[in-house]
């Protein structure tokens, strides 16, 4: 699938033409102009920032794009490139980070999981297994002050964190038999996407993790973890795998990250505006994401997708089996602090209701 680039307005369905960027990225430095003189009544030239994401034209960060347009009164425009590196292997998000570091693009929106490997391991707390298991819980965590501290983990090596946005919930699917309790994982090869936490979790459950690229075939896997929207869009249901109705392994939070030089070329007010746009996009995101998942579920059910529910005993066994992942994460002091804070925030939030094709 080829990547697509469009302005923020086009991403929202408005009739806005394409913004053509020389060399594939915006000239942020030249776009930020000093205040005009009293004699110069010409309108200020808008700042154009390029944003790339491996995702499609998704509602997951539509609110952020809308907020930038509204808060800046169109003085900041974002040219969005969708499906970037989407089909270039399992390290597609790592490749996108390199694009940001090199300055090919000013901004990127990608899963937090890519940072837990070596760039910002403390972000692994966001995807600790079976912890954030609902859209409401994810929205609660990313709307709390802890999110402002966590995004700073991204800073360094030419990258600057802008904000954290809620993303889809990742669920297990098994070939032949569903992945309900730890016994169902043993000896299986489970497809995951680039994440140290996911890798450690699958190993703790007795399975072999195998990284696979977005949209890649799952036919040779014994199971995989994925959000319903992607299962539907990639037609993974055609592989005949059975989904687990009441297990959310982890969410896929979205990190908005900027090229540091491009970000520093912006004025302080413009930098503050981008961060405000991200914070405001968190509120209400859970309802939007739930609606997307419900729509995907309807399509999957219409094509015959099956789901099975884990028993209370199997859920308890899963939590016990993944405890080594928590022990591993907690060896880092900051990660443990984030885990403790997140655990306290989500303790009273109900999990998502079990998936069902009977409604």
Keywords:
alpha/beta; seven-stranded mixed beta sheet; six-stranded mixed beta sheet; 359 residues; 36% helix
Task: Describe what you observe in this structure.
This protein has 359 residues and is of the alpha/beta class. Helix content is 36%, strand content 17%. The strands form two sheets. Strands 6, 7, 8, 9, 10, 11 and 13 form a seven-stranded mixed beta sheet that branches. Strands 1-3-2-4-12-5 form a six-stranded mixed beta sheet, sandwiched between helices. Helix 3 crosses helix 10 (268-282) and helix 5 packs antiparallel against helix 11 (285-302). The longest helix is centred in the C-terminal third of the chain and has 18 residues, at 285-302. It is globular and about 60 Å long. Mean pLDDT is 87; it is low at 1-38.
Computed structural class: alpha/beta
The helix-strand sequence is EHHEHEHEHHEEEHEEHEEEHHHEHHH
Query: Regions with pLDDT < 50 over 5+ consecutive residues?
Result: 1-38
Total number of helical segments? Answer: 14
| Shape by Cα distribution | globular
End-to-end CA span: 34 Å
Radius of gyration: 21 Å
- The fraction of residues assigned to DSSP E strands is 15-25%
Biggest β-sheet description: 7 strands, mixed
């Amino acid at each position: 699938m080829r990547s697509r680039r469009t302005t923020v307005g086009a991403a929202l369905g408005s009739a806005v033409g394409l913004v053509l960027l020389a060399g594939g990225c915006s000239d942020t430095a030249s776009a930020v102009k000093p205040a005009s003189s009293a004699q110069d009544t010409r309108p200020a030239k808008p700042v154009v920032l390029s944003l790339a994401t491996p995702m499609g034209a998704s509602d997951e960060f539509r609110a952020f794009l809308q907020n930038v347009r509204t808060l800046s009164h169109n003085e900041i425009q974002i040219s969005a490139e969708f499906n970037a590196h989407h089909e270039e292997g399992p390290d597609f998000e790592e490749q996108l980070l390199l694009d940001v570091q090199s300055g090919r693009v000013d901004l990127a929106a990608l899963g937090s999981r890519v940072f837990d490997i070596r760039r910002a391991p403390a972000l692994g707390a966001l995807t600790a297994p079976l912890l954030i298991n609902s859209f409401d819980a994810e929205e609660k965590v990313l709307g709390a002050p802890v999110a402002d501290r966590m995004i700073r983990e991204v800073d360094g090596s030419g990258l600057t964190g802008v904000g954290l946005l809620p993303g889809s919930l990742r669920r297990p699917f098994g070939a032949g038999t569903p992945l309900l309790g730890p016994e169902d994982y043993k000896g299986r090869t489970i497809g995951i996407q680039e994440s140290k936490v996911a890798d450690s979790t699958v190993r703790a459950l007795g399975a072999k993790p195998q990284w696979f690229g977005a949209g890649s075939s799952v036919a040779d896997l014994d199971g995989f973890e994925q959000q319903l929207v992607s299962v539907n869009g990639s037609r993974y249901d055609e592989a005949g795998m059975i989904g687990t109705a009441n297990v959310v392994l982890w969410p896929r939070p979205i990190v908005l990250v900027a090229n540091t030089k491009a970000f520093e070329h912006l004025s302080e007010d413009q930098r503050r505006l981008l961060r405000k746009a991200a914070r405001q996009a968190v509120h209400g995101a859970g309802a939007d994401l739930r609606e997307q998942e419900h729509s995907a579920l309807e399509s999957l059910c219409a094509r015959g997708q099956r789901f099975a529910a884990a028993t209370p005993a199997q859920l308890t066994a899963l939590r016990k089996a993944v405890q080594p992942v928590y022990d591993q994460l907690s060896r880092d002091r900051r990660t443990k602090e984030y885990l403790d804070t997140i655990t306290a925030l989500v303790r009273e939030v109900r999990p998502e209701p079990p998936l069902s094709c009977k409604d």
